[in-house]
Amino acid sequence: MMLKVINFNKHIGIMVKIYSISTIRKKVREYGKKINAPSQLLSVRATSDGFGTPHIEIDKNGYNYVVNERGEEFERRQTKDIDKLLYWIFKSIVFIMASDYELEHRKPNEDFRRQLFATQIELMEKLDSKFAQWDKEELDKILEESPYEDNL
Asked: Domain residues of the chain, as ranges?
């Protein structure tokens, strides 16, 4: 498998503050309170657990959002933008929360993604309107390729 490194740095030549892992953890806890996220979902790792749990590496390129499993790196995203990093971190947290909500409120003959996606965007909006916009753009792309299918 070929690893693809995605670099989202837009601030070339501009001084950008890079936060420490402890500050990132603090920000994640603060944001988590906005959506009443379960504390167990708010863990930010600085090293891989080897089981596919994302972790954050900080280096001269800024933040690296990394996913390793059994010694193999599957994903690495790079940015110097703390907001983009927080979005990546919360994307999985919000997905878990939205999935739990949808499962508890499933409607017969309705594509489960309707509630799932709506809840994701709602939670992202509570965190930051930019997060909601970024998530909506990603979800719209999914729906272009795979539209909702109700009454299945």
From this structure: 5-145
Q: What is the CA radius of gyration of the chain?
A: 17
Let me know: does 110 contact 117? Beta carbons within 8 Å.
no
Give the model confidence (pLDDT) of 10-66 as tens digits.
Answer: 545 567 899 999 999 999 999 999 999 999 999 999 999 989 999 999 999 899 999
Convert the chain into a string of H (helix), E (strand) and C (coil): CCCCEEECCCCCCCCCCCCCHHHHHHHHHHHHHHCCCCHHHHCCECCCCCECCCEEEEECCEEEEEEEECCEEEEEEEECCHHHHHHHHHHHHHHHHHHHHHHHCCCCCCCHHHHHHHHHHHHHHHHCHHHHHHHHHHHHHHHHHCCCCCCC
Q: Tens digit of pLDDT for each residue in 96-141?
A: 999 999 999 999 999 999 999 999 999 999 999 999 999 999 999 9
Q: Residues 32, 36, 77, CA angle at the centre, nearest 5°?
A: 30
